[in-house]
């Protein structure tokens, strides 16, 4: 029977010095696999990159940092769970909270965007306050806090932040807060203030978009078009240009349908639907993985196999 020394180095692979010691001291039929300096040199050459490493027969196991996981237990990038990249499974077993947060965001964005494009010549958007405070705000905030429990930092940041956005947006139109009344005699200040408010959210959204470039097309599209929505609405507020605001509303409607798609992708399964929504990785994500990881990992696995 062949066993592997349990003493591991910082990368999670066998320590060659301890392996040779165990080999020399053992006189039984039980042997210890000595990976040797060649494997150590190979792993050290990529350890500074802090990349995901695949090892074992048929790449069955994956090292993420210093932790080893079976590949079939890892979560891939998936818009239905707002997971932007390969991640280990959570230590707690909860239902996926991302769909309810995405659907709350999608519906509220759709309603507000319909007002922004002036559908049916409606100019007073106050009816969106109820949706913004409770579905887009409170429910999405709770979904974000739930994401903390399932150890998804990206989803927690996104859902809690946009839940806070909708709560703050609703507060602007609630007379008790006195925000609109403060600008009653200064309408230009109100427009400029709303422009700054929306611009800040555009910057934040574009920042989140940077963390989705290794995920899926619909995942990336959600944050990409949402950033454009905020930017157009900000420009429309600064310039007091109704046409630009309508353009922001059109992009917002598109964004809401993308958010619904992502949310429904997290709900659809072979058990509850005759079809499931596809999840297409970004071509750039596959290119980045192939160029930066596959070459080094293939050398690692080949060296590992030759040593065995």
Automatic annotation (TrEMBL):
Spans traversing the lipid bilayer:
94-115, 127-146, 153-174, 194-213, 220-239, 245-264
State where composition is biased (Low complexity): 16-31
Q: What's in the keyword line of the UniProt record?
A: Membrane, Transmembrane, Transmembrane helix
Q: Name one GO cellular component term.
A: plasma membrane
One function term, GO molecular function aspect: acetate transmembrane transporter activity
Q: Where in the cell is it found?
A: Membrane
Q: Report the family membership.
A: Belongs to the acetate uptake transporter (AceTr) (TC 2.A.96) family.
This chain belongs to the protein called Uncharacterized protein
Task: List the InterPro entries hit by this protein, alphabetically.
Answer: AceTr, Gpr1/Fun34/SatP-like
The uppermost taxa in this organism's lineage are:
Eukaryota, Fungi, Dikarya, Ascomycota, Saccharomycotina
- Specify where the region named Disordered lies, as residue ranges: 1-37
Task: List the signal peptide residues.
Answer: none
The way it spans or sits in the membrane comes to: Multi-pass membrane protein
PANTHER family the UniProt entry points to = ACCUMULATION OF DYADS PROTEIN 2-RELATED
A Pfam family matched in the record: Gpr1_Fun34_YaaH
